Amino acid sequence: MWTRDEALRLGVTGWVRNDADGSVAALIAGPDGAISAMIERLKRGPASASVSGVETEVTRLEKMPTDFRITG
């Protein structure tokens, strides 16, 4: 929920999910500055989280997401 709330504040679209191994995966789309800000927020995480690292990968999308969803 924290990631979705931060994404909505920044105006980025995409999705986030919790994976079985305890990691979190996300797709973040939007203006470069907003994406950079979101990545910085993900590096800190919410107060209750322990973030050990953030890995990023640039990808081209055929269709841009229109909202931000929690998928799992």
Structure, briefly:
The chain is α+β, with helices and mostly antiparallel strands. Helices cover 31% and strands 21% of the residues.
How would you sum up the major sheet? Answer: 3 strands, mixed
Using the 3D structure, state the CATH architecture.
2-Layer Sandwich
What spatial form do the alpha-carbon principal axes imply?
A: globular
Quaternary state reads: single chain
Order of helices and strands: HEEHE
Radius of gyration from CA coordinates: 12 Å
Instruction: Quickly give the structural class.
Output: alpha+beta
> What is the CATH topology?
Alpha-Beta Plaits
**How many individual β-strands?**
3
The total count of helices amounts to: 2
Q: In percent, how much strand structure appears in the residues?
A: 15-25%
Estimate nothing, just give the exact number of structural domains.
1
Low-confidence stretches: none
User: What is the CA–CA distance across the termini?
Assistant: 11 Å
Task: Report the top-level CATH class.
Answer: Alpha Beta
Instruction: Please bin the fraction of helical residues.
Output: 25-40%
Mean pLDDT rating:
95
Query: In what order do the strands lie side by side in the largest sheet?
Result: 2-1-3
